UniProtKB/TrEMBL annotation:
Residues 1-38 are annotated as: Disordered. This is Pentapeptide repeat-containing protein. It comes from Streptomyces cyaneochromogenes. Pfam families: Pentapeptide, Pentapeptide_4. Keywords: Repeat. Gene3D superfamilies: E3 ubiquitin-protein ligase SopA (2.160.20.80).
Amino acid sequence: MARKAMGEGGVKGARRPEVRLPPLEPYRDGQLEPDGDYDSLEFREEDLTGQDGAGARFMDCALRGCALDETRLRHARILDSVLTAPRGVGTDLAEATLRDVELVDARLGGVQLHGAVLERVVIRGGKIDYLNLRKARLRDVVLEGCVLVEADFGGARLERVEFVDCVLKGVDLSGATLTDVDLRRAAELDIARGVERLSGAVISPAQLLDLAPVLAAELGVRVEAGP
């Protein structure tokens, strides 16, 4: 299920997921398995550090307060699930699929999501450092009240993506393609590279003033006081 947001100013709003979890059984296996199948399970404060769940499928699951340091989830599919307060460094979700997912209050660093597909995903609260989304595809994604430090969207495709009350520091948009991306409600917008890729996004007048020096530098325009 997804709820379609109303766009403003001609921008198409993102469709948010409406995750309704069934009754869950506690996860008791202790060790993830590559290509494993996990349905209707609750992972509560599990230490999944260094475990290998590459290619696994998580359907109708809740992960609450789990440690994901160096957890290998490459090519995993996370569907109709909620991840609350995950923590860890170096989680590998490269080329994974996240669909109808809520990620809440994450404390993560160096997450590898390059080549991943995110569809109808909400990332709410928390802080993620050095998020790698190079060549990922994001459609109907909402980032709300979170902090992203040096997120890398290089070569990614973003469609109907909203940034709401979030802080973006040192973002890399090099080679990215943006369609109906709404940045107007971002609390802070700091673009380190790829400012020329903002075509297809909408920003506020105040953000335009903040970005003016970067835009001028991109255009090769020198800004100097008159004589």
